[in-house]
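Take a look at the protein record below with the fold in mind.
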Amino acid sequence: MKNLILVTLLFLAFLSCKKEKQIVEEKQPKVTWQTYDESEDIEATQKLEQSRMHLKLVNSKVLDKNSIWESLEPELDYFAPEDYNRLKDLILEKDIPTLQKSVKAGQLSYEELTKFYIYRIRKYESDNGLSLNGVISLNPKVVEQARALDKTDKSKIDIFSVYGMPILLKDNINTVGMNTTAGAIALQHNKTGNAYITQKLLDKNALILGKANLSEWAYFLCSGCPVGYSAVGGQTINPYGRLVFESGGSSSGSGVTVAANYCVAAIGTETSGSILSPSSQNSVVGLKPTIGVLSRTGIVPISSTLDTPGPMTKNVIDNAIVLNAVIGKDASDSASVETNIDYVKGIEGQTLKGKRFGVIKEFLEDSIYNIAIEKIKKEGAEIFELEPKQTPLPGFLSILNIDMKNDLPAYLASQAGSEVSIKNIADAVSFNKQDTTLRVPYGQQLFEGILSDSTTTAELDTIKEQLETTSRAYFDEHIDKHNLDAVLSINNYHAGYAAVAKYPALTVPMGYDDKGEPKGLTFIAKAFSEAKLLQLGYAYEQATKERKLPSKYVN
């Protein structure tokens, strides 16, 4: 009898606790995205001065946004607005070391951090007045993976690591469990293994949060079309000026999602300006490394000569941390090198005193650049005004054309999933022609140009050699003469020169014009100078602290 009474009491206590838990953890109402009439938004863009912002559509015609977070809805069932608001001050705009310290102190868990970002993505992307179309897909297992990391001993975790940090990958980077589309309907169901850099992140216990939107085929499809548009993801939108400012390309989604605090960090890719442009346009830090520092295996290509992935972050220290996580010599990438450098070491405590910078004289007419240079002077740096000759880069387009003609079939044969039917550029052109309104509403002029380019292998080799020599001389003449630490540019203005020189470039938030559009100060130096650039960028960032969270995304 005593046992029966005890069991009964325990059962009643269990029911009471369960009832209390249900009251406290009341299931949250489902949040959904609804289609809307885009005509007014589209019409407004036709009045903008920038013709590339004259849009034909805003949202994707093949992706229901609800499907982005649908598989994760059960994880958010008991994540209330109160939870989100409680975590905001711990997460928004915080760098990786600060987040890791909060986890170590028991104020934050990796599961909470991950749910916060998923909730925030759903919160803004389900609102047609605030959505950015920056995300194509989310990892359905990411919360489960975060929960597993929470079971580890936090005291042993390095605060300068990507351990447990939710990171978005540009959707041309292969990732198990999520399709890799390059924004193209032809690759919409492309199931792949992991890219080399994806695996490096996973090996360091980073969390792959999902895939970021991009300019379709890394902006090598149509001519004069909007940057940040893809048939799969729709039009990526700049959070500092929705449907007014360009989002930059081609790593558009990586830029806007970092800017709006949808993730801790993102990975972009660049051939010529595709990290620098969206980083500058969205007031984030973007690094385009020297070719070979990071592997390209498992990334949908444009050019094996010029392509490179790179980190995009809210601050310089995070950029160095993410770079540390993805370096490594890849035997499958002929350009890959072993760096054996700790990019975080020595970065803190750096100053600009005594550093030597070349500034572009004509850019001093830009008030934001001018102010930035004056601030650098006040920090004790030496400034040398440069008037480099605007040297043409003949044959640049042929590098892209012929490389992609060869490199894309190689990717499709060795890296793409069996669901992909196209084998080459000609197949892609034919596929798109079957429904141009849906698949290529802005045309495919660049793809057609690839097919018509008759440059021979010998001619291409000559072009590559000449352009590398010319572009290196463009920088080296001044770097060597004045013993410069770096040349300072704006946004992606010198991206083409840095690309064919295979030189690294780092852009850091520099300020905003009178309309609120962001600009970046871009540091360029000789090959394999990433550590120096990060130190210079960190010193500049700490002296100026120009980055601001976009005003409509502070809550």
Summary: The domain at 27-553 is CATH 3.90.1300.10 (Amidase signature (AS) enzymes).
